[in-house]
Design goal:
homotetramer, alpha/beta, 9-stranded mixed sheet
Amino acid sequence: MSPIRLAMVGGGPGAFIGPVHRMAAELDGRLRLVAGAFSRDPAKSTLAAEAWGARGYADWREMLAAEAARPDGAQAVAVVTPNHLHFAVSAAALQAGLHVMSDKPATVNLAEARELADVVARSGHLYGLTYTYTGYPMVREAREIVARGDLGQIRKIVVEYPQGWLSRPIEREGAKQAEWRVDPALAGAGCIGDIGVHAFNLAEFVGGVRVERLCADVSTVVPGRQLDDDCNVLLRFEGGARGVLIASQISAGARNGLRLQVYGEKGGLSWSHERPSQLTVDWLDGPSHILHAASGYLGVAAQAASRIPTGHPEGFIEAFANLYRDFADAIAERRPTAGLVPSIAEGVRSMAFVETAVAASRDGAGWVALQGALP
Amino acid sequence: MSPIRLAMVGGGPGAFIGPVHRMAAELDGRLRLVAGAFSRDPAKSTLAAEAWGARGYADWREMLAAEAARPDGAQAVAVVTPNHLHFAVSAAALQAGLHVMSDKPATVNLAEARELADVVARSGHLYGLTYTYTGYPMVREAREIVARGDLGQIRKIVVEYPQGWLSRPIEREGAKQAEWRVDPALAGAGCIGDIGVHAFNLAEFVGGVRVERLCADVSTVVPGRQLDDDCNVLLRFEGGARGVLIASQISAGARNGLRLQVYGEKGGLSWSHERPSQLTVDWLDGPSHILHAASGYLGVAAQAASRIPTGHPEGFIEAFANLYRDFADAIAERRPTAGLVPSIAEGVRSMAFVETAVAASRDGAGWVALQGALP
Amino acid sequence: MSPIRLAMVGGGPGAFIGPVHRMAAELDGRLRLVAGAFSRDPAKSTLAAEAWGARGYADWREMLAAEAARPDGAQAVAVVTPNHLHFAVSAAALQAGLHVMSDKPATVNLAEARELADVVARSGHLYGLTYTYTGYPMVREAREIVARGDLGQIRKIVVEYPQGWLSRPIEREGAKQAEWRVDPALAGAGCIGDIGVHAFNLAEFVGGVRVERLCADVSTVVPGRQLDDDCNVLLRFEGGARGVLIASQISAGARNGLRLQVYGEKGGLSWSHERPSQLTVDWLDGPSHILHAASGYLGVAAQAASRIPTGHPEGFIEAFANLYRDFADAIAERRPTAGLVPSIAEGVRSMAFVETAVAASRDGAGWVALQGALP
Amino acid sequence: MSPIRLAMVGGGPGAFIGPVHRMAAELDGRLRLVAGAFSRDPAKSTLAAEAWGARGYADWREMLAAEAARPDGAQAVAVVTPNHLHFAVSAAALQAGLHVMSDKPATVNLAEARELADVVARSGHLYGLTYTYTGYPMVREAREIVARGDLGQIRKIVVEYPQGWLSRPIEREGAKQAEWRVDPALAGAGCIGDIGVHAFNLAEFVGGVRVERLCADVSTVVPGRQLDDDCNVLLRFEGGARGVLIASQISAGARNGLRLQVYGEKGGLSWSHERPSQLTVDWLDGPSHILHAASGYLGVAAQAASRIPTGHPEGFIEAFANLYRDFADAIAERRPTAGLVPSIAEGVRSMAFVETAVAASRDGAGWVALQGALP
């Protein structure tokens, strides 16, 4: 079985997430990077292409056309540009007959996300969205524990995602990663769009319930910044569960501390990105359980998501690689992804969350319904 | 220097917090329990009195009168009844010329709290409120770090207080501690009044800023219960800091996981009741610091709050005892408590928080100002 | 039931462990400090006596005689002097008809310990030894788990006790606690006698097996010091289990990090003094269990050793108080202590361990039998 | 710069470490697997070759000859067979003009290791040994902290490596990974050779001092097993530091809990494989420091060993990949590896440790000198 041929748009020198996509895609030998429009600067794109043994292009439209014309051309595209290009590149790639794996968020706004959903549906091709945290074995185990009803009905979900790297206005001090993320034209939304969507998706992915209503405090803390850098949201889920979502990029000293707590009638589980290979389940009666990745007592999905024996830590790249592996399996078997790779439906929900929260917070609207998600 | 003579109202057989008050008060030999109206049941009160070597009374009014008349009578009273009696006992004791150490909340409602503030002021006697967590050495250190400006201006405070013990309707299953806590007549408020006030007070105590506005989701999760058992609140502090307060008694599997995070411009600190003897400070630049109780590098207040060498854990009773020791010092030195023992002003603020949050949540009022605190 | 009347020898101003004994003894109201020869300096002894509301004596022999003559005299004595007096005071107190609770080690050497065992036996009075760690609820639970056979046959025990406070020669810099601990005449042995005995006793207490043979590396790291300050010992237990014991007072930066691991055929447990209220059990198959103090699912001994609800940390003083409570129960019920309070038999075993290890290490003897314990 | 062409010997279906080598080698795009004698079974080798897009061979000697003859043949070989073939394959590959990256241990015995050292020296080619743990960023930081003298002179090193997976005789129950590891002919040594060598190497790598003398207890716990499955060793390092090394495969419930503590005059550091991205440094005076991988305040070596921003966990595969990246750099720059990739000198030292410890333990020899290492 030959590897699936992958192209990339974005990810040139200085990028953070492009190299992660490449490492993750190739980790299990299921995909191979063969082409890329890594940068608008032809020299930089060529440099990246040479380093990675791929065909380099300076223009992504040119690349899509050229690869489509080759018998050994790319079969799928990884979209790792700043957010404002996600829609155009993804849509064009799907229309050119390629599968798409897009970095989050799906688009810069809800309208684009809904339009992209139509494009995906019409294309008949696969579209995956790298909500990376769904790729962690113990997140998949958590989802299964909830789905199986071990905790009883879910009553409360708390998800926190503190980062501190935008505590100072580093976008004005030459920090490339910060520059585009705080620019409304390139990023669409700020903290809520960059990491709030991860938190939102994780809560729904594990909790198995959907946000219905919310009350948001989305704000800009660092003076002079145009987009939000801190957001705190009260949630109400279908079925009545309460929730809190906290995402921040001005939590000084925090690194990337995504943490999830899900409470049901009989117990609660918690997962923290700081120790991703373990999952804690606290019971109303009885000792707490710590479940460890790569253990024989885990469910099928979690077990399949580890490559090496228990006690040997796997991390962010491997979680990412699990999404790519699932994506590759679906391509190879000509079937939809099996529910573990986030799809455009999740992309639309996330953008609905972002737009609803930002508007309600700006307007001081209090509790509002989550609007704009697909039925 | 003889120990200060202490009486107690409440705390008879089966009580949780009464014995804690006794152990805490006597731990350092600064106070001695000499009398108590431990129970309305004369036999039970006598039993407790004998066990503790104190004079027993069946009626607290009778006790106040009798002790006031004795040359060796009680000088101070610990109020450890269910909430609905806090006001009456505290006020009567102050008026009888005794100092008061009251369990939280100060009263069952804001009106009583404000009236009690007047009583305290007029009495010229000391009134302390056992927001226990302010007695922990590392909480005091955290307060000092913030006050000293090490973190720069405070931008965000997150305080969580998950408990799970009311996940089932155990008040209908014979659990004495639960029975009165879910009874509006005896408790006043539910989860928010029982532990929400701890979280509120801790956030302000350490953060050094006051809550100005809030948006609350206070709800009852367990069917048939009259008072709230879960609350989630967005906060805005004076000076602009954002905050989130989470308190819950239906977080199944949680024990008593109070956790505080305070973020400033330069770093953030976090303290967790699960490991109370350490305090983590994460810096925007540089390694994280873990400060350990009873270390020579700590501030004066934190150092004074440990009894034994570093690495020897002290816990809840010792934290409680620190409040009593400060209280005893103030009595002995005929001066006000030095800011570390919560006073009636904090009691009023807490009740203002409770009433504002409960009303705003009930009315779907969105953001509202914290109303009713003392100026 | 009136409190048992306790006297103390040692524990005057500047002492660490004397005040701990007092707080622990009185915590549950089962004993009351009534007398003390707190210091050889009459003024200091008087000062301590006044602070604690007790009768002060300058000479412990005088105190024993005087208290024995009073109808309300002390019934038991806490021995908290430097080690070299443990034997004489304990023996005299027992012979004067008092029960004894002695700080560890039992004596300065094995010969004294064996002689004291005879005195105890002849006296018909109770003798307890404060190997404090046996008072922790989760240590008692660990013991019960092992005894019940949950782990299968025990195969390996690792116990570590790192401290760092003697990393520099602070005994020459005015540190009172250090001065006598490094003086052969006052302390008998160094690190191995001060904390190695705790580790030794803990391993046997929980593991339920006795050390038969050992191979020791006992050494003095800080130049100019006469007694050992670091020791590492290989162990062989009866029944074949292997073990390692590490105790050190030159592990710079370590606080009081006693840690125990016990491995059986089916799983292993670990307990750490840094988080004393939890116990981890890792199973060969299945999730790890975390057991929390004061939980309903614990065994009787562990449950009885907590005073307050789960999630409310108790610490060193409470563990100590558990030993005193058990001691008081035994006195009140005129029966031997029930196996949870270490006795002179454990004291003799510990001194046999110290002498065997020190001699074998000095002589380069390799593996030797543990010699001198009681049959 | 084209990737370096890598061949592999071993690593076919069912193998654990072969796939890790492949993923690690290819992760950064610096090497590419082009050939392999993955299994002695031609069908299996072909299967693996196809899956990984490489040329398959059934015989490794044939592969070496064929690849040497191709202009695009392999330039380096990864040796991932059971231990008994390490010597023959490594020596042949070096003699065929290929660089070698060998899994540990270097050989099955000391004589072979010393002979291999000669082969390496004569060959002029690079030889690297995958003591994986030296590839972790925070292990490299620890080494740098010690080397820089921050801790002062090193006084004590404790290294523990508990595993539990051989607690039962699973080698008789069809566990392929266990079968050869307990077979003297295939593995050479048991637990001490499989993971004891990791612990030994880590202690010396970070501590910067060499073991001079040791006293070992190497034993077989599971009945019927021929090789050791548990070992406990007292160490003396050059310069006088003391140490303890514990390695076990019968520590039931343990996963892969390698843990290192290094104590100097001024402080101590500890690193645990359970949280590999952090390093704790405890100081004699002052707060503890927690250093986090991928932070700007780390040394050059640690920073270079992370691929993604701080807070994004990297694990075992990435640590492994760091060794391969250093190896590839050295090949590309035609220079020796820079001290971070373990070499045959470390391989010889490890085998000297194994043979010295096993012999001394068997003979009850007590303290012996580490014999047979290269000068």
